[in-house]
Amino acid sequence: MIPFDKRSGKIWYNNELVEWQDAKCHVISHGLHYASLVFEGERVYNGEIFKLEEHTDRLFYSAKRLDINIPYTKDEINEASKKIVAVQNIQNGYVRPFA
């Protein structure tokens, strides 16, 4: 198994693709300390995200319920998820957007 800090590739972070090791979360992030975030676990089969729109709808619904602002549209989140699957050449795996 590869440790998370030793992986390579790209991550969509703050509206751009960055190298895995450059995607940093501040140590006093509210989401880290208080688990005040929402996320979705999206399954990828044969290079396609299963029920992408439904996952994104649920992400936005959950964020609204917790009064978390997502600074992107649903379409932007969907496109970012598709882009990362393509760039990383994920055929079977997971995508995990969070806010």
Describe the 3D structure.
The chain is α+β, with helices and mostly antiparallel strands. The protein has a domain at 50-99. Helix content is 33%, strand content 17%. It has helices spanning 30-34, 52-65, 74-87; strands at 10-13, 16-19, 42-45, 48-49, 93-95. The strands form 2 sheets. The protein has a 3-stranded antiparallel sheet with strand order 4-3-5, covered by helices on one side. A hairpin with a 2-residue loop joins strand 3 and strand 4 (48-49). The longest helix has 14 residues, at 52-65. The protein is globular, with a radius of gyration of 14 Å.
Keywords:
33% helix; three-stranded antiparallel beta sheet; alpha+beta; single chain; two-stranded antiparallel sheet; 17% strand; 99 residues
Class by helix and strand content? alpha+beta
In which order are the strands of the major sheet placed? 4-3-5
Counted beta strands: 5
| Shape label | globular
Q: Roughly what is the average pLDDT, rounded to an integer? A: 90
Biggest sheet overview: 3 strands, antiparallel
Radius of gyration, whole Å: 14 Å
- Would you list the SSEs in sequence order as H and E? EEHEEHHE
